[in-house]
Amino acid sequence: MSGNSFVIAPLSPQEKISVAIDGLHASRTTVIAKSTASDHLSMIIIHVHEHGLSRNDLSKAIDILTRPSSLRKSQALQLLKLLYPREKVDDDVVIRIVGCLGVGQGKADQLVQVNLLRWLVLIQPFLKSQKILSKVYHILFMHLSYESTRQWIAHLLFLATKRHDIRPWRIQYLLEMQNKYRESQHLTGLLLLYKEYFPEIVIDRFAKLRGALFKYPDPQFLTIIHEVHARANSLSGEVPSFSRDGLSNLKRRKLNIPEMITLDVSEKSVTVEELSTLASFAKNIDRVSLPAQVGSVLRDDGMVKRILVNRPSQRAWARLNTWIASSLREELDDAEENGNRGEGLLGELLARSYDLCLYTKELLISVEDFLCIYLPRWDGVRHRSTVFRLLLLLPVRRWEIIDRDITSPLTAIFQKDTENWSFRYDYLVFLEDLLRSYSVRCGKVTSYGRDREVDGLSHAEVIKTMSSLFAHWESMFKKVSYSDHGATEIQGASLYMYNVVEIGSKF
Question: Coil, strand, or helix at residue 89?
């Protein structure tokens, strides 16, 4: 080797990626052969899963995809699958993607648009600024009319929506769109999100959503991104910029009880927020205005409950029952979909509903209807204490109704797991407490004469219910074997049970 020769250092993997991206970027101004484009893509495939794309390379790749080029559609879609950013994604990338949406000259191919929007959903946790989605919210919203991109537009809007984004005209537009495209689950899902912020503005009932609608679409992509970032940061000696829990914020699930805010208050009105003592409540009971969203009673310290009980309004109770029924059903669907993660919210809502029912001394019709749906699906373990406490507030019903809606599904649990003495004991105690409660109610009525009704039932119907309920308790009691753990406690409770029945028989 002569003294004038030079040794050319081999290109690093990052440099090879950059050379390949530059080669593809040339397709914007010149026609490149299909084989040449394939060679460039192959080079990117070899290295990108380990090293990702630099900020500059990603920008050029987005330029290729969002503007006219000679790159074939299949190759453009292949490039889209290789966009693993090594750094946080600039706002400019989002703006260019949003700018290429729609139809007309200079717009990206429709299939490319769909996949670009999906990619935006994938990299949303890694945006340099989350505010950029809010800045393009209006543009995204107006593209909901395009069926081909609606799924990912709705997903991005779901991720970006804040309270200030929800405008009356947007609600109306979504309702009209949903009415036009009734099978669109994504429009329904977006409306449900709007409803979480304003429960009484959006319609109350929706078709049941199928599966996890707005879940992260590609967990493997997320894993690769984290590996790319970890490698890049370890080589540079920097602290990793991204947490592995980037996925946790993609679905915001918390018990969304409305804030206690009163609107449209006249000069003579008094808001709940202004009442601080029982004296002020008694003084202003005729002038106090209910909160705009009556569901806020579940976070109330007592004032709204007092208004509902002491100044009853059929319309207010109807609004409250509608809100509770809808919320309980949504939390049940979420619990069935997400398992333990969703059960906590359902339990909290049931507990808050119990506090309200206990205050009013009545089981709300919305809660009673929900329990009839829930019990056949219940495992007998979760929220057991709350469920039984709610059922103790059950009005006296005809035995046929109680048996169909309450005791039959609970008996199925009782008989299914013969080793679960804990549920068996709690169920027998529940039956005893329910009979005791019914006896007390019936005992109060006897002083007014036997023609007096109990919860709308005649004397004969009440007697039939109580005798059938006791017979059911007795049959359940006999099924408990003496070898069961806890059988002594169960049998000891029977002595008190016969006293309860004796009291009830006097009715």
Answer: strand
Answer CATH for 13-197 from 1.20.1280, 1.10.10, 1.25.10, 2.40.128 = 1.25.10
Indicate the pTM of the whole model: 0.52
Note the pLDDT tens digit of each residue in 339-386: 555 567 888 889 989 998 988 888 999 999 999 999 998 988 889 999
Local structure of 20: helix, strand or coil? helix
Q: In degrees, to the nearest 5, what angle opens at C-alpha 361 toward C-alphas 286 and 274?
A: 30
User: If you ran DSSP here, which 8-state letter would residue 487 be given?
Assistant: H
Q: Alpha carbon 142 to chain centroid distance?
A: 25
Amino acid at 485: H
Q: How far apart are CA 289 and CA 284, in angstroms?
A: 10
Tens digits of per-residue pLDDT, 260-309?
A: 665 555 556 666 666 667 776 677 667 666 666 677 778 766 777 777 77
240 CB contacts (<8 Å, ≥6 apart)?
229, 230, 233
Judge whether residue 217 has pLDDT over 50: yes
Q: Which residue in 427, 320, 428 sits closest to 364, CA to CA? A: 320
Each domain of the chain, given as residue ranges in start order, spans: 13-197, 253-393, 395-507
